[in-house]
Amino acid sequence: MFFSIPRLLTAGLLASVIPAHTISRTERFRTVVTTDMEQDDLASLVRYVLYTNELDTEGIIYTSSKYHWAGDGKNTKFFLPNREYNTSQTSWRWTGTRTIEDILLKAYAEIYRNLLVHDSAYPTPNDLLSKVKIGNIVFEGEMDQDTDGSNLIKSLLLDNDQRTLYLQAWGGTNTIARALKSISEQYAHTAQWLHLQASVSRKAVILASGFQDETYAAYIAPNWPALRVEDFSTAYNTWGFNCNKGQGNVRGLPDQHEFFTGAWIKANIQIGPLGRLYRSWLDGQHTPGDQLDVFGNYTLAAAPGTWCKPLGPYDFLSEGDNVAFNPLLTTGLQDASNPALGGWGGRSKLNSSTPELWQLVVTEKAANGSEVKDWTTNRWVEAASNDFAARMQWGLTSKYQQGNHAPQVKIVGGAKVRAKAGETVKLAARVSDPDRDAVTVSWWQYLEEGTYPGEVAVTSDKRRDASAMVPADAKSGQTISIIVQATDDGDFPLTRYDRVIITVK
Ligand SMILES: *[C@@H]1O[C@H](CO)[C@@H](O)[C@H](O)[C@H]1NC(C)=O
Ligand SMILES: *[C@@H]1O[C@H](CO)[C@@H](O)[C@H](O)[C@H]1NC(C)=O
Ligand SMILES: *[C@@H]1O[C@H](CO)[C@@H](O)[C@H](O)[C@H]1NC(C)=O
Ligand SMILES: *[C@@H]1O[C@H](CO)[C@@H](O)[C@H](O)[C@H]1NC(C)=O
């Protein structure tokens, strides 16, 4: 019901070459990106477009933030205290409204034919282009005017598609806030209002790369308290600006540090028409319009008074907005309806139920038994980085055999099991790999996902089978989460997962 006829026809014609793992459009998460187009938003978009085969992208919308706003074109001055400027300004670090159309999607178009070889579900460049809109960009937090961007979000929130609409805020939440306010202005005085407000609150989920203006606190939280908002700002410790207070490039766990080094990024990410748009330290690039984007130039970045001391050439710089879409990626772990379950985006906990705000947990217990800060996002760096690099290769080759493609793993017998305390639960997984790579399977307890507070022995003698012993002291109703993880041995090894939750009888 949501397909246009041309889309159906296209899908039908290509069916014979669709690899088995393509995700149908109605199963995909429906999402809108709003972005202030700082250089790390562009870097995040470079990653994002490589995942558009598994997401239903409904909008890519320019918005303002406390760091970037366009001004009204009439030299009107604007000022808020405690910002990067200390006198009123007519615009601030604005990078324009053409980068997505003229630079990012042009690069996507150059590699699109190759991407299709690896998954026919990639949207056409024109399809993505048709989703690009200008939202509320004039000043920080501006939400007085309906814009093309806010109108698009409003119409998606009111349409008949029952899927959740994941609204990503990579800049301010103001364009999203404007859409909500416009709905309220139109319907608040009608008989259907309470019903409508409840259904919009159920449909929308805001995935926020922090709160980069005041519109969440000032408007969304008080007026839409039942609308779920997830704040991923602590995931910047994994994916945000790599400044590290003069300690140098220490990003990532010691054995996964490689993925943040210049050697790895230059060789595996900053390649080809799309990858060259990615940003790293001292890579010679600069975003027109943003006078504080000095990261590409050593002389400017090392000057006294800059907030982020330069690291080595091509070291990881920042891609702080992938934090908002990592929870939507199809790894087998993701359950976007339940932020209390972990995944590449991390695991969250409820901060307050009214307004409904979720935030990432601070620590999780690592394999060595220590509580480790940011482990909830750092634990996935290797898998997520290899996945990104493998997709970058897809864009460079028209031969399916020259790319690596993820294995599939599925627990046999479903995602839920009931067992008594003291009982041994037999588990088995079905594993396949589209490239016929050798796949290594491992099973482990995701301790914090379960409500049983202790460790559970998971033994796996044979590669695809395992058994988990429900401890004798487990109480009825407690849960134990077991993950199966499958990693292939292709170039850039790819990992997929499945989860079973054992509930104690
Ligand atoms: C104004 O801000 C700049 C940095 O943006 C800073 O260097 C300067 O000292 C500030 N001036 C005052 C008067 O605070
Ligand atoms: C870096 O910036 C300095 C100061 O503006 C400039 O003189 C130099 O040419 C720049 N270097 C590069 C490689 O762009
Ligand atoms: C909720 O979030 C606020 C703002 O980030 C924070 O100060 C507070 O500690 C959090 N509360 C809980 C219970 O996590
Ligand atoms: C435990 O493992 C984590 C993650 O690899 C590491 O950061 C931490 O230093 C380790 N702790 C100890 C005590 O070895």
SSE blueprint and pairings:
Blueprint: H1 5-14, E1 29-35, H2 39-49, E2 55-62, H3 99-118, H4 125-129, E3 132-134, H5 148-158, E4 165-169, H6 174-187, H7 193-203, E5 204-208, H8 215-223, E6 228-231, H9 236-239, H10 262-268, H11 272-275, H12 298-301, E7 348-353, E8 356-360, E9 363-365, E10 371-373, H13 375-378, H14 381-394, E11 408-411, E12 416-419, E13 424-432, E14 439-445, E15 458-459, E16 465-469, E17 479-488, E18 495-504
Helix pairs in contact: 2-3, 5-6, 6-8
One 2-acetamido-2-deoxy-beta-D-glucopyranose (NAG) binds next to helix 12.
Your description of this structure?
The chain has helices spanning 5-14, 39-49, 99-118, 125-129, 148-158, 174-187, 193-203, 215-223, 236-239, 262-268, 272-275, 298-301, 375-378, 381-394; strands at 29-35, 55-62, 132-134, 165-169, 204-208, 228-231, 348-353, 356-360, 363-365, 371-373, 408-411, 416-419, 424-432, 439-445, 458-459, 465-469, 479-488, 495-504. The chain has 505 residues and is of the alpha/beta class. Among the domains are: 5-233, Ribonucleoside hydrolase-like (Inosine-uridine Nucleoside N-ribohydrolase, Chain A); 406-505, Immunoglobulins (Immunoglobulin-like). An 8-stranded mixed sheet has the order 3-2-1-4-5-6-8-7. Strands 11-13-16-15 form a 4-stranded antiparallel sheet, with no helix packed on it. Strands 12-18-17-14 form a 4-stranded mixed sheet, with helices on one face. Strand 5 (204-208), helix 8 (215-223) and strand 6 (228-231) form a beta-alpha-beta unit. The radius of gyration is 23 Å and the shape is globular. It starts with a helix and ends with a strand. The chain binds 2-acetamido-2-deoxy-beta-D-glucopyranose (4 copies). One 2-acetamido-2-deoxy-beta-D-glucopyranose is lined by residues 253, 366, 368, 370, 372.
